[in-house]
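As the work plan foresaw, the team has encoded backbone shapes as discrete tokens. One protein thus recorded appears below exactly as we store it.

:::
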Amino acid sequence: MRFFSGFSLEGEEVLFGEFLKSYKKNPYIVAGFSYGAIKALEYVYRCEERVDRLLLLSPAYFVQKSEAFKKTQIIYFKKDPAKYLKSFFKNAAYPADSSLLDPFMKNGTLEELKELLEYEWPKDRLKSVAERGVKIEIYLGMKDRVVDAQEAHNFFKEYGQSYLFKPYGHILKEGKIGG
């Protein structure tokens, strides 16, 4: 399996064990989390080798967000990247504890953030990938504080099997019981 990491993350695929465990040793599976889902789609679209399945874990879907929202994100990142990322990871982990992401953090770039925010999922590429016989699976958490999971689900369900998990957030984990 080939895995693409999320924005400012590296090696976080271990967090998605319940979704990836049956695919770990399969070389024909491509998966990506959040920003990595963008990279995964682009990779599969351009790939001339066999790919059986594309797994999009909480794909970064900001199409419905305003330009003002996107500009604000960039301004805050430029002003204090560490503070921005701390807040970003808190939202990404919710309802779970943000410390789950600590071992996987790396410094993301402004260019990556811009790509994440500005990416418009190309319908023609999703359709092309699906028509090649690649099974597309999309996993979303209804408690996601990074993307609008319902909007993303409505968009992606046309191209593959989209799953919405009520108790999960962006990293597809639930919070502590009673928390």
In short: Helices lie at 17-20, 35-46, 67-79, 81-93, 110-118, 123-131, 149-156. The chain has a mean pLDDT of 95.
